[in-house]
Design brief:
The complex is a heterodimer. By secondary structure, chain A is an alpha+beta fold. Chain A folds into 3 domains: 153 residues, Alpha-Beta Plaits (2-Layer Sandwich), CATH 3.30.70; 163 residues, Sulfite Reductase Hemoprotein, domain 1 (2-Layer Sandwich); 74 residues, Alpha-Beta Plaits (2-Layer Sandwich), CATH 3.30.70.20. In chain A, 31% of the residues lie in helices and 12% in strands. Chain A has 15 helices and 13 strands. In chain A, the strands form 4 sheets. A 5-stranded mixed beta sheet of chain A has the order 5-6-7-12-13. A 4-stranded antiparallel beta sheet of chain A has the order 1-2-4-3, covered by helices on one side. The longest helix of chain A has 17 residues. Chain A is globular, with a radius of gyration of 27 Å. The termini of chain A are far apart. By secondary structure, chain B is of the alpha+beta class. Chain B has a single domain, classed as Arc Repressor Mutant, subunit A (Orthogonal Bundle). Chain B is 48% helix and 12% strand. In chain B, strand 1 and strand 2 form a beta hairpin. The relative contact order of chain B is 0.19. The chains are: A alpha+beta, B alpha+beta. The interface between A and B is medium-sized, with 33 and 26 residues. The complex binds protoporphyrin IX containing FE (HEM) and iron/sulfur cluster (2 copies). The site of one iron/sulfur cluster has 14 residues of chain A, from helix 11.
């Protein structure tokens, strides 16, 4: 028998999709039965109370969680998000129900044994409820009390070799795509760069001193599996600067139907025989491909690395050999004026493991210096870029302007030069001028 | 020039206590302005003040603020005056 009646939540379970309500009830039941004889360190029925307070919110259309709070583990300004219920008498099990962000391993690689240990720890010292993974990338532990925070942190850091992630005005847990570990499209080692920068910037991750949050995300290619272009203040997107590698024999095999396009995806219905003209050439956004007399040609100068042709015919086409990444800056998802994508800042950079990514770190630190000094409270990098201008960003990063930084160069050719950037400056020889122009 | 810790501590505590009637939570930038220091320099001092328990963090989850330890901050977060 449920502790609280929850007719509105029950209704949510009737839809066609897996329901978080069912998941919560399952964990609530498991805690009530306690078949593993766990000595629960927080209220055994806290998930019942969580269901109850959510039902209440559905009824009175308002939240019953207070706004933020003072919690954390010693010395850390992030990783714990204080959540206090404003109806603690009715729902004592969730009076404190803090969230922990647990820094996920790069590429989300771990063993089942390790996952079990994390889950066991959380059943013992928290609600047992997790979110794998949050949209930040972290492993999210949902719901524990203040006294348990240090305990969980101690167990994680001393026994599981596991740190907390970021929250608040600091560097958020960097996140990356699975990259070279499993994916042939990867143009650089996303996991190594992600891990390296996570370790390098531990201070920025744990001790908030930024105007607001700051995110790095790493995609091995423009398919952008972690959506870095939409979700990161600095997006690292794998790319190449030479030519797409073409295997003409494999192109023929696709054309003849010997290899399934799209790696066999979209096979749920019969789309008819593969039509290279219709499905590849005509869909190339820059119109830079042609297929004539059984031969595929690409005008690589016009290619924007959209990945479409490569995704459709992965056995015939591959990214080039001269690989690296593009760095884009300033994405955010504002509530009022719609999503803002990152803007191209570094069209191509070699991702250089040998010198521990020195060039990339220099760029990052120049940007941080600027933003930390000039950024207003709660202003993201993308907003500062809009307020002070892209030109200012180029100045602080010491980068030269480049047509590839202009979104549509042919539509918007304006470049405002400063006098010192123009040979000879603004001054002209008036006598020379008068030779051709009357007063 | 590196900031002198004791001197900086005095500045911060004094400034925050002065404003205590109207405000108990401060952005990082407010603190570096009090110290009249670049953010990176200010950060070293502010970290130490947290470590020593002079200051403590308040976090909404998305934004972090600082305040003198033990000062009521929660009501302010819910716009009830502090
Ligand atoms: C290659 C030829 C031309 C180019 C590249 C050009 C470019 C431009 C640009 C960049 C502006 C905007 C300036 C600003 O933002 O302040 C402008 C404004 C203007 N142009 Fe041209 N232009 C050309 C020829 C002409 C000609 C032949 C005329 C008229 C006979 C003309 C009349 C104007 C006028 C009236 C404005 C608006 C000025 C204002 O805002 O006060 N343009 N043009
Ligand atoms: S972003 Fe590219 S490299 Fe990374 S997993 Fe996706 S397809 Fe592969
Ligand atoms: S990657 Fe995109 S732009 Fe480049 S050739 Fe293929 S379809 Fe065209």
């Amino acid at each position: 028998m449920a502790k609280h009646e929850t007719p509105l939540l029950d209704q949510l379970e009737s839809g066609p999709w897996p329901s978080f309500v069912s998941d919560m009830k399952q964990e609530a039941d498991a805690r009530a039965k306690n078949e593993k004889n766990i000595e629960y360190q927080v209220a055994q029925d806290n998930i019942e109370d969580l269901l109850g307070v959510l039902e209440l919110s559905y009824n009175d259309c308002t939240t019953h969680w207070k706004h933020g709070g003072i919690v954390g583990v010693f010395g850390y300004g992030g990783g714990v998000i204080g959540r206090y219920c404003d109806q603690p008498e009715k729902f004592p099990g969730v009076a404190h129900f803090h969230t922990l962000r647990v820094n996920q391993p790069s590429g989300h690689f771990y063993t089942t044994d390790y996952l079990k240990k994390l889950c066991d720890l959380w059943e013992f010292r928290g609600s047992g409820m997790t979110n794998m993974h949050g949209s930040t990338g972290d492993i999210i532990f949902l719901g524990t009390t203040t006294p348990q925070l240090e305990e969980v942190f101690y167990e994680m850091t001393h026994k599981l070799d596991q740190d907390l992630g970021g929250s608040g005005s600091n560097l958020r847990t960097p996140s990356d795509c699975i990259g070279e570990a499993r994916c042939e499209f990867a143009c650089y080692d996303t996991q190594d760069l992600c891990t390296h920068l996570t370790m390098e910037y531990q201070d920025e991750l744990h001790r908030p001193a930024f105007p607001y949050k700051f995110k790095f995300k790493f995609d091995g290619c423009p398919n952008c599996c972690v959506a870095s272009i939409a979700r990161a203040d600095l997006s690292f997107i794998g790319t190449w600067r030479d030519e797409i590698q073409i295997d003409q024999e494999a192109v023929q095999a696709y054309v003849n139907g010997e290899i399934k396009p799209n790696g066999g995806a979209h096979a749920g219905r019969d789309w008819g025989p593969f039509d290279i003209q219709k499905e590849v050439i005509d869909l190339c956004p820059t119109g830079c491909m042609k297929y004539e007399n059984g031969k595929l040609e690409i005008n690589n100068k016009e290619c924007t690395r959209c990945m479409h042709c490569i995704n459709v015919m992965p056995r015939a086409l591959r990214p080039g050999k001269d690989k690296g990444c593009s760095i884009l800056a300033g994405a955010k998802a504002p509530i009022l004026d719609g999503a803002q994508m990152s803007s191209m800042l570094v069209p191509f950079i070699k991702v250089n493991k040998e010198n521990e990514y020195a060039e990339i770190k220099e760029l990052i630190e120049n940007i941080w210096d600027w933003w930390m000094e000039e950024g207003k409270n709660r202003e993201r990098l993308g907003e500062l870029m809009k307020r002070q201008g892209f030109q200012k960003l180029l100045e602080v990063t010491g980068l030269d302007p480049d047509p590839r930084m202009v979104q549509e160069p042919r539509h918007n050719p304006y470049i405002f030069w400063k006098e010192e950037e123009v040979p000879g400056g603004w001054d002209r020889d008036i006598n020379e001028f008068r030779k051709h122009h009357q007063r | 020039m590196a900031l002198d810790y004791e001197e900086s501590k005095e500045k911060i505590v004094e400034a925050l206590q002065k404003k205590a009637k109207t405000k108990s939570k401060f952005y990082f930038n407010d603190l570096s302005k009090i110290l009249e220091a670049k953010p990176r320099e200010a950060k070293k001092v502010i970290n130490k003040l947290v470590e020593e328990g002079v200051l403590e963090y308040w976090s909404s989850g998305s934004t972090t603020m600082y305040g003198l330890k033990g000062m009521g901050k929660q009501a302010g977060a819910e716009h009830e005056g502090e």
